[in-house]
């Protein structure tokens, strides 16, 4: 009885509060509403009464207190997605639902017109995607729909997006012909394998590798070596009455294709296991969501050593510990900088590590030690020019460097066959990652003032290195965006500098980026101006937001930004170069123009016409 009597009152109350709720929902309420639309999932940290950003709710990416991304990966989520609630997260730029159990049609994310990235990989989404679905999503850069059960045609509107960099549709049941791609030069990563696509591949895809079309039996035309005319002829000469024959032919064809593909992967994995030196691109193309655990390989003798070693190395971090290591034949970590406290190899070995990626000189791992300090351990196989003592001298010299834009190593570990260099971990990662690798995290913070600060900080650090290592043939020698780390406040820190004395000439040419400068490629010469070239490239990369093809040893992928910038400047089309993400900052266009000009002057292929480091730095500091 009582319940019945209260009912009208309650519904009036709901009716009255509803409009205000719609306009003033807190981020917390929005996410709780979203959580309710899921039928299950591991979102235990999403508790009403706590703040998503401050309390670090799982999967919630924040910039300050603004939610910029939902990275709900592998949380066993299913049910529906309350897009209406998400509409109220004004700062939201990225949604990832990768590796969950969602089913049914694609959610209406197209109502969220400001999204930059949508990752729906490895779910059970199905059905057709409306042809104009993507029309309202002009800011999209990354679309990952792979490993679902989508059917129907690939939407035309997807292929028309102006800023699309990554398109992954592999492992679905998309059928029909492939719509033409409107901006093929922007796209750096594309995969259409294992669908039911057929017909002639549009001209706009001809620059891509044939392998991105594998597993679609009916496709023909460039870049495949299947002539569409021949396909049409054989279809014509094969009357439809003989279905059985063509069916089993198709099966044989599929079997053969599968075999070839399998063989290809076996060979490819053997080759890639042998190839130690990976491009920076592999950092980006690495499966972003798989975390591997690394066992740092240390000989038995060290492993059995009791934990006292770490204590000892902590107090006498000077000469003592390395001599100790020599005497006992033990391998130890030598501290060269104990600003962050001392630690030993034992502490590192106890830490769970995560692979960060491969760079020109080796691989990098992140390790969080018991005391909470997070470090990056770089395994360098190429730094083997000097013996133990010479290496020690160089590392101690690095350890003494102090500059706000320089990453000073903390410790090293020397073995003949490889060296480990340990530095503090920077949570924002590298500039390369922040600019291009934003799987699930879009750095909405990367606005113009921040980019200018990064460029000026790099120049500042480089100026220090050119003073400190002035006698070197090329003082930094390895400047590129993956060797610029960013602090919490986006202050840049240069790393992997001044390696020239540590590395043999042949390894230097392979591993150090200054050796990719035009003067080295043409005349096998490097000079301090090679650092200027690398600086110019980083400036242009920051200004355009594009991945430079110069970072790839095979030149395939990315954009030749040096060429592009020279052309646009000569055609007086400078504005088209500016990254769309900062282009709306119209008050700063003048500064952007100045920096594009400086970047172009730094990347002149003739070193005589290139700025020298002093001029470059002065001009960068004067931008106003
Ligand atoms: C495309 O995706 C498939 C499935 O994940 C993968 O095996 C293949 O290597 C990818 N191909 C290219 C060219 O990226
Ligand atoms: C092959 O036939 C299809 C229709 O059957 C047609 O659309 C296509 O243009 C033909 N291709 C060539 C290269 O003649």
From TrEMBL:
<dbReference type="InterPro" id="IPR046959">
    <property type="entry name" value="PRK1-6/SRF4-like"/>
</dbReference>
<dbReference type="InterPro" id="IPR001611">
    <property type="entry name" value="Leu-rich_rpt"/>
</dbReference>
<dbReference type="InterPro" id="IPR032675">
    <property type="entry name" value="LRR_dom_sf"/>
</dbReference>
<keyword id="KW-0732">Signal</keyword>
<keyword id="KW-0677">Repeat</keyword>
<keyword id="KW-0597">Phosphoprotein</keyword>
<dbReference type="InterPro" id="IPR011009">
    <property type="entry name" value="Kinase-like_dom_sf"/>
</dbReference>
<keyword id="KW-0325">Glycoprotein</keyword>
<dbReference type="GO" id="GO:0004672">
    <property type="term" value="F:protein kinase activity"/>
</dbReference>
<feature type="domain" description="Protein kinase">
    <location>
        <begin position="350"/>
        <end position="624"/>
    </location>
</feature>
<dbReference type="Pfam" id="PF13855">
    <property type="entry name" value="LRR_8"/>
</dbReference>
<keyword id="KW-1133">Transmembrane helix</keyword>
<feature type="region of interest" description="Disordered">
    <location>
        <begin position="295"/>
        <end position="329"/>
    </location>
</feature>
<feature type="transmembrane region" description="Helical">
    <location>
        <begin position="252"/>
        <end position="273"/>
    </location>
</feature>
<dbReference type="Pfam" id="PF08263">
    <property type="entry name" value="LRRNT_2"/>
</dbReference>
<feature type="compositionally biased region" description="Basic and acidic residues">
    <location>
        <begin position="301"/>
        <end position="319"/>
    </location>
</feature>
<dbReference type="InterPro" id="IPR013210">
    <property type="entry name" value="LRR_N_plant-typ"/>
</dbReference>
<dbReference type="GO" id="GO:0005524">
    <property type="term" value="F:ATP binding"/>
</dbReference>
<keyword id="KW-0812">Transmembrane</keyword>
<dbReference type="Pfam" id="PF00560">
    <property type="entry name" value="LRR_1"/>
</dbReference>
<protein>
    <submittedName>
        <fullName>Pollen receptor-like kinase 3</fullName>
    </submittedName>
</protein>
<keyword id="KW-0433">Leucine-rich repeat</keyword>
<feature type="signal peptide">
    <location>
        <begin position="1"/>
        <end position="22"/>
    </location>
</feature>
<dbReference type="GO" id="GO:0016020">
    <property type="term" value="C:membrane"/>
</dbReference>
<dbReference type="InterPro" id="IPR000719">
    <property type="entry name" value="Prot_kinase_dom"/>
</dbReference>
<keyword id="KW-0675">Receptor</keyword>
<comment type="similarity">
    <text>Belongs to the RLP family.</text>
</comment>
<dbReference type="Pfam" id="PF00069">
    <property type="entry name" value="Pkinase"/>
</dbReference>
<keyword id="KW-0472">Membrane</keyword>
């Amino acid at each position: 009885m009582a319940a019945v009597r209260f009912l009208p009152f309650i519904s009036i109350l709901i009716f009255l509060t509803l409009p205000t709720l719609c306009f003033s929902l807190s981020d917390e309420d929005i996410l709780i509403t979203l959580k309710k639309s899921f039928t299950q999932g591991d979102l235990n940290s999403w508790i009403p009464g706590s703040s998503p950003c401050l309390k670090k709710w799982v999967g919630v990416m924040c910039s300050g207190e603004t939610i910029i991304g939902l990275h709900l990966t592998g949380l066993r989520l299913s049910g529906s997605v309350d897009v209406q609630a998400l509409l109220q997260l004004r700062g939201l730029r990225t949604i990832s639902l990768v590796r969950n159990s969602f089913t049914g049609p694609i959610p209406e994310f197209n109502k969220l017109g400001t999204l930059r990235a949508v990752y729906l990989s490895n779910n059970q989404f199905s059905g057709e995607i409306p042809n104009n679905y993507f029309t309202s999503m002009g800011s999209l850069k990354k679309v990952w729909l792979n490993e679902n059960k989508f059917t129907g045609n690939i939407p035309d509107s997807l292929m028309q997006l102006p800023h699309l960099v990554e398109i992954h549709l592999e492992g679905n049941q998309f059928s029909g012909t492939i719509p033409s791609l409107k901006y093929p030069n922007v796209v750096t990563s594309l995969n259409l394998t294992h669908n039911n696509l057929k017909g002639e591949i549009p001209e706009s895809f001809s620059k891509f590798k044939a392998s991105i079309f594998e597993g679609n039996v009916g496709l023909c035309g460039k870049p495949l070596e299947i002539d569409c005319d021949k396909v049409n002829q054989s279809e014509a000469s094969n009357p439809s009455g003989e279905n059985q024959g063509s069916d089993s032919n198709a099966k044989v064809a599929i079997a053969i294709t599968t075999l070839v593909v399998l063989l290809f992967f076996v060979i490819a994995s053997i080759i890639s296991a042998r190839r130690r030196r990976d491009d920076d691109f592999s950092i980006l193309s690495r499966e972003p969501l798989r975390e591997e655990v690394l066992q740092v390989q240390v000989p038995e003798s060290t492993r059995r050593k009791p934990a006292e070693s770490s204590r000892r190395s902590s107090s006498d971090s000077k000469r003592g510990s390395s001599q100790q290591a020599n005497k006992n034949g033990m391998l130890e970590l030598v501290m060269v900088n104990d600003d962050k406290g001392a630690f030993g190899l034992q502490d590192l070995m106890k830490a769970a590590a995560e692979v960060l990626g491969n760079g020109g000189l080796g691989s990098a791992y992140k390790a969080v030690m018991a005391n909470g300090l997070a470090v990056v351990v770089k395994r360098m196989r190429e730094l083997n020019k000097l013996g133990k003592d010479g290496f020690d001298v160089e590392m101690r010299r690095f350890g003494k460097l102090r500059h706000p834009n320089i990453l000073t190593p903390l410790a090293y570990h020397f073995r003949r066959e490889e060296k480990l260099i340990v530095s503090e971990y920077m949570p924002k990662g590298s500039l390369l990652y922040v600019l291009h690798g934003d799987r699930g995290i879009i750095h909405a913070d990367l606005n113009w003032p921040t980019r200018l600060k990064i460029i000026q900080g790099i120049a500042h650090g480089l100026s220090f290195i050119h003073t400190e290592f002035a006698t070197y043939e090329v003082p930094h020698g390895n400047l590129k965006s993956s060797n610029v780390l960013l602090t919490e406040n986006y202050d840049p820190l240069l790393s992997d500098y001044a390696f020239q004395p540590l590395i043999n000439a042949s390894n230097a040419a392979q591993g150090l980026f200054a050796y990719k400068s035009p003067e080295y490629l043409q005349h096998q010469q490097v000079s301090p101006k090679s650092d200027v070239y690398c600086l110019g490239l980083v400036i242009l990369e920051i200004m355009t937001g594009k991945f430079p093809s110069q970072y790839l040893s095979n030149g395939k992928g990315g954009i030749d930004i040096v060429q592009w910038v020279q052309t646009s400047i000569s055609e007086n089309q400078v504005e088209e170069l500016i990254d769309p993400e900062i282009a709306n900052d119209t008050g700063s266009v003048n500064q952007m123009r100045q920096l594009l000009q400086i970047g172009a002057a730094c990347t002149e292929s003739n070193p005589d016409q290139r700025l020298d480091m002093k001029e470059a730095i002065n001009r960068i500091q004067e931008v106003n």
